[in-house]
Design brief:
This protein is an alpha+beta fold and 245 residues long. The protein folds into two domains: 111 residues, Proliferating Cell Nuclear Antigen; 111 residues, Proliferating Cell Nuclear Antigen. 16% of the residues lie in helices and 43% in strands. It contains four helices and 18 strands. It has a nine-stranded antiparallel beta sheet with strand order 6-2-3-4-18-17-16-10-14. The longest helix has 14 residues. The termini are far apart. The mean pLDDT is 94. Belongs to the PCNA family. It holds the Pfam family PCNA_C.
Length: 245
């Protein structure tokens, strides 16, 4: 197998989020796409990614290849990655891959391919009452600020706005509206409110680097779904279970 991807920073962001969730993960390269699904240690959150072969500069996969890796080790490998640097992964031996980060200099690593036991992953097929699209930088800032004072983030929606606020004694409210430009679109079946862990959301804010916009989907007492859809066709979906009301 051999794949070349133009922006190593995308992979770095994904591994940063994964490392907060799991100790080990497995990338699957098949003829159509690179895919990964992982559920966190406490079975509260789930991440699913799919990069079609068209997202890669080169994508040479003759048969399915699975790359199992330790997330903390992979994070160390990718830590030096910078913007506009290229990521190259190649394997002639199924027990390992050669990983190169190519920029003003070339960093060459050998990553051992470890066997990851398959965990039972639930199907993602929820119906949501609220679907909104917000500017990623604004969403990141909102969650970051709420997390400084609260363990929980409450999501509220109307026909024209999305309101995120802290749950607890200290109150912070961040409102996204079309008039202010932070809210790109919103559709609701009915006004609903639901609360999620601020810590878990803060842990994956690095994913906002992947896309200029974040799609937010939720219903009362159902998982929150965040979607990061990239210009090259790649997508990352993050689900987080609700907190008890």
């Amino acid at each position: 197998m051999r794949v070349v991807y133009d922006n190593a920073m995308d992979f770095k962001a994904i591994i940063e989020a994964l490392a907060k969730m799991v100790d080990e993960a497995s990338l699957t390269f098949n003829s159509d796409a690179m895919e990964l699904t992982a559920i966190d240690r406490a079975h509260i959150s789930l991440i699913k990614l799919r990069f079609p072969k068209e997202a890669f500069k080169e994508y040479d996969i003759t048969e399915e290849f699975r790359l199992g890796f330790n997330t903390q080790y992979m994070l160390k490998v990718l830590r030096s990655a910078k913007k506009k640097e290229q990521l190259e992964m190649e394997s002639q031996d199924p027990s390992q891959i050669n990983l190169k980060i190519i920029g003003s200099m070339v960093r060459d690593f050998v990553v051992r391919n470890i066997e990851i036991s398959a965990s039972e992953i639930p199907e993602i097929n929820f119906q949501f009452d609220v679907k909104a699209k917000v500017v990623s930088s604004g969403f990141k800032r909102a969650i970051n600020e709420i997390y400084t004072v609260s363990d929980s983030v409450q999501f509220n929606a109307t026909e024209s706005s999305l309101l995120l606020k802290s749950a607890g004694e200290s109150e912070i409210e961040v409102e996204f509206t079309k008039d202010m430009g932070g809210l790109q679109e919103i559709s609701i079946e009915k006004p609903v409110s639901s609360t999620y862990s601020a810590e878990y959301l803060n842990d994956v804010l690095v994913l906002t680097k992947l896309s200029g916009f974040t799609k937010i989907l939720y219903s009362e007492q159902k998982p929150l779904q965040l979607e990061f859809n990239m210009d090259n066709g790649g997508s990352v979906v993050y689900l987080l279970a609700p907190q008890a009301g």
